[in-house]
Amino acid sequence: MKHYICTGECHGMSDKPGVCQAEVCEKKSQPLTECNCEGGQHEGKGHDHSSH
Ligand SMILES: [Zn+2]
Ligand SMILES: [Zn+2]
């Protein structure tokens, strides 16, 4: 199911498009990134462990 995540330090997630609303996040007021992952891996974050 499609959802939207913040790639900043708050790791926020929303079911709808929008912007980060976390006061302490470096990405505050920046658009959330569309993500279609299952299981909470958040493919849009771009941080993966290459050894698997
Ligand atoms: Zn954020
Ligand atoms: Zn995701």
Task: Give a short account of the largest sheet.
Answer: 3 strands, antiparallel
Percent in strands: 15-25%
Spell out which ligands are present.
zinc ion
Query: Could you tell me the number of beta strands?
Result: 3
Termini separation: 25 Å
Number of domains: 1
Helix content: under 10%
Oligomer: single chain
**Overall geometry:** globular
**Neighbour order of strands in the largest sheet:** 2-1-3
Give the C-alpha Rg: 11 Å
Average pLDDT value? 85
Please state the structural category: mainly beta
Note the total helix count. 0
Give a brief outline of the structure.
By secondary structure, this protein is mostly beta strands. It has strands at 3-5, 13-14, 33-35.
Topology:
Blueprint: E1 3-5, E2 13-14, E3 33-35
Antiparallel strand pairs: 1-2, 1-3
Bound molecules: zinc ion (2 copies).
Structural overview:
With 52 residues, the chain is mainly β. The chain has one domain (1-38). 0% of the residues lie in helices and 15% in strands. The protein is built from no helices and 3 strands. A 3-stranded antiparallel sheet has the order 2-1-3, with no helix packed on it. Strand 1 and strand 2 form a beta hairpin. The structure holds zinc ion (2 copies). One zinc ion binds at residues 6, 8, 10, 12, 20, 22, 25, 27. One zinc ion is lined by residues 6, 8, 10, 12, 20, 22, 25, 27.
